[in-house]
Design brief:
The complex is a heterodimer of chains A (114) and B (116). Chain A has strands spanning 4-7, 10-14, 19-25, 32-38, 45-51, 56-59, 62-67, 72-77, 86-92, 103-104, 108-113. Chain A is mostly beta strands and 114 residues long. In chain A, strand 4 and strand 5 (45-51) form a beta hairpin. Chain A is globular. Helix content of chain B is 0%, strand content 47%. Chain B has strands at residues 5-7, 10-13, 19-24, 31-37, 44-50, 53-56, 65-68, 75-79, 88-95, 106-107, 111-115. Classes of the chains: A mainly beta (114), B mainly beta (116). The A-B interface holds A 6, 31-32, 34, 36, 42-46, 49, 51, 89, 91, 93, 95-96, 99-102, 104-107 and B 3-4, 33, 40-45, 48, 56, 91, 97, 100-110.
């Protein structure tokens, strides 16, 4: 099955700086990679996703890059704000497989210091 | 549109007692997921339904956990009897999954279970 590794487990940045979270996956057939943001005590919310037919996707201050050859993908947040503080989870899945199972990383606690 | 609804939000029980969680998915979503989230970890799939059929329950501890999704809409997850190690957040998610396609999973707020 798929294995997703996420680094770092904690990340502290100053407001206005950039933050980068990296994930690797093991199943070369995986083709869909969402990122979720989870604030303390709240539900995970999708913030951006990428499919394997593109290498980069951007939405305002958030971008995700995918390197299929190396089997890794990254989340980039620019101009961080205190409200970006949360736990971020990456995930991967093979959407065409019979066992459609989203495998999550262990999460990164991002703290943006004002 | 209304999001995924779960109840209760919090539950405290003593070990060996039964407990049940309820989930109402987003209207029109045919696929429903139950996840377990331990503190400091990502969600782990327990069971996946497509309509009323459980298509993946390989991670569900069947000796004490059971689930049902009658009529392909609402779902309940039950634990009987609960153990101390079951303390966690139980998340429900739903999606409008088409075969062979990717889909976005929308999560509910979760039920935080504490077993004493």
């Amino acid at each position: 099955g798929e294995n997703v590794e996420q680094h770092p487990s904690t990340l502290s940045v100053q407001e206005g700086d950039s933050a980068v979270i990296k994930c690797t996956y093991s199943d070369s057939a995986s083709n869909y990679f969402p990122w979720y943001k989870q604030e303390l005590g709240k539900r995970p919310q999708l913030i951006i996703d990428i499919r394997s037919n593109v290498g980069e996707k951007k939405d305002q201050r958030i971008a995700v890059t995918l390197n299929k050859t190396a089997k890794h993908f990254s989340l980039h947040i620019t101009e961080t704000q205190p409200e970006d503080s949360a736990v971020y989870f990456c995930a991967g899945v093979n959407s065409g497989g019979s066992n459609y199972k989203l495998t999550f990383g262990k999460g990164t606690l991002l703290t943006v210091n004002p | 549109e209304a999001g995924v609804v779960q109840s209760p939000r919090y539950k405290i029980i003593e070990k060996k007692q039964p407990v049940a969680f309820w989930c109402n998915p987003i209207s029109g979503h045919n696929t429903l997921y139950w996840y377990l989230q331990n503190l400091g970890q990502g969600p782990e799939l327990l069971i996946r339904y497509e309509n009323e059929e459980a298509v993946d329950d390989s991670q569900l501890p069947k000796d004490r956990f059971s689930a049902e999704r009658l009529k392909g809409v609402d779902s309940t997850l039950k634990i009987q009897p609960a153990e101390l190690g079951d303390s966690a957040v139980y998340l429900c998610a739903s999606s409008k999954r088409l075969a062979g396609a990717t889909d976005t999973q929308y999560f509910g707020p979760g039920t935080r279970l504490t077993v004493l």
